[in-house]
Design brief:
It comes from Amycolatopsis cynarae. The chain is about 20% helix and about 30% strand. The protein has about 190 residues and is of the alpha+beta class. It has one domain. The longest helix is centred in the N-terminal third of the chain and has 15 residues.
């Protein structure tokens, strides 16, 4: 029952977690982890993105997800739940005897750059480079304690890798994100 509750909480956070990315009047337009986006893409993203047509679920095998978080189940393909043109995939490791409980996912965002990522109050942004030398916007605690998101630049678009927990620390979730990146980066188009 707790694993179902964790999955429901994680899915709700993932689909509603982004802050507005525009200061223009009209409808607020979310940006960030898995929320839909109706905002105009950044000027760099107006050209055809190298990520168009990339399926997020093809970037990490279930066996690799098991290596990252032993006990993680098979992936769930959320299709374009992150907005038109996106691809969203997620994995969950259920809570067992009050321990563990991790949800992590990958979002392919062909029309949004790392500069389109909104950092909420309490979110801690840094700009490291990925294991493959790509630009990254790393945000800790953007959705509360125990959350970590890495937005990795790929051409004019980005790949979001996120991890959320109710029982572990933010640093442990950033370690999960880093391990996912180790697998994913080799499968990304060159920037």
């Amino acid at each position: 029952m707790r694993s179902a509750a964790l999955s429901t909480i994680i899915a709700a956070i993932a689909l509603t977690s982004a802050a507005c990315s525009s200061t223009q009047p009209g409808q607020p337009s979310p940006a960030g982890s898995l929320a839909p986006s109706s905002a105009s893409p950044s000027s760099a993203a107006t050209a055809a993105s190298k990520l168009s047509g990339v399926n997020a679920c093809a970037l990490l095998a279930d066996s690799e997800a098991q290596q990252i978080a032993p006990g993680a189940g098979s992936h769930t393909d959320y299709g374009d739940a992150g907005g038109a043109g996106t691809s969203v995939c997620g994995w969950t490791k259920p809570v067992v005897n009050g321990q563990g409980g991790v949800s992590f996912g990958i979002v392919v965002r062909p029309a949004q750059s790392i500069n389109d990522l909104a950092v909420k109050p309490g979110g801690q942004l840094s700009r490291p480079t990925s294991t493959g030398g790509r630009q990254v916007a790393l945000v800790k605690n953007n959705e509360g304690k125990g959350t970590c998101l890495a937005a990795i630049a790929v051409g004019s678009g980005r790949i979001d890798i996120n991890a959320t927990t109710m029982h572990d620390t933010t640093e442990q979730m950033c370690s999960v994100v880093s391990k996912i990146d180790d697998f994913v980066e080799a499968r990304l188009p060159s920037s």
